[in-house]
Specification:
165 residues
């Protein structure tokens, strides 16, 4: 088995695996405020409808997709065109093995290459493993949004982080 994953742009044929990993994050309730599960059809359409600057990338080892990352629009307003929102999802069997850091490093590089000035992210407050990863890559905390969403009938706080490129 390869020790270093391949980092590449997502393809339509990856949609099923991206949906599976995305749904793990939704199901576990500690990585996203998303509540609707995604299927392969949804992900294919999501990939098709994206502007090329807002890349979706996967980490792959020996044909196995271990995680994915997307650069997303921060806002529809033109003034924010140099700010990307970043999302990272790692397959539950590949966590704590460096996949998240690998994806994040390549996502930062891709954001620079795609002429972004800054990356922002919103994470569930208290997810210390994720926060440690982001801090290790130069992100800083901007603040906490209290009671930002509801998961399992419980109000969830989120933390916003940013990295200037």
């Amino acid at each position: 088995m390869e020790t270093t994953p391949l980092f590449r742009n997502a393809e339509l044929s990856d949609a099923g695996k991206i949906a599976e990993i995305w749904n793990q994050g939704i199901e576990e309730g500690n990585a996203t405020l998303e509540t609707e599960f995604r299927d392969e059809k949804f992900v294919k359409q999501w990939l098709i409808n994206r502007d090329a600057r807002y890349t979706v990338m996967v980490a792959e080892s020996s044909g196995y997709i271990s995680g994915w990352l997307s650069l997303n629009k921060f806002s529809q307003r033109e003034a924010y065109r140099f700010v990307a929102d970043i999302s990272i999802y790692v397959h539950r069997d590949m966590r704590n093995m460096g996949t998240g850091g690998f994806l994040l490093d390549h996502g930062i590089s891709t954001a620079r290459n795609n002429d972004f000035h800054k990356i922002v992210l919103t994470m569930i407050y208290g997810n210390e493993r994720a926060k440690k990863l982001y801090l290790s890559r130069g992100f800083s905390s901007v603040g906490v949004l209290h009671e930002q969403g509801i998961i399992n009938d419980k109000w969830i706080d989120t933390e916003i982080m940013e990295k200037m490129l």
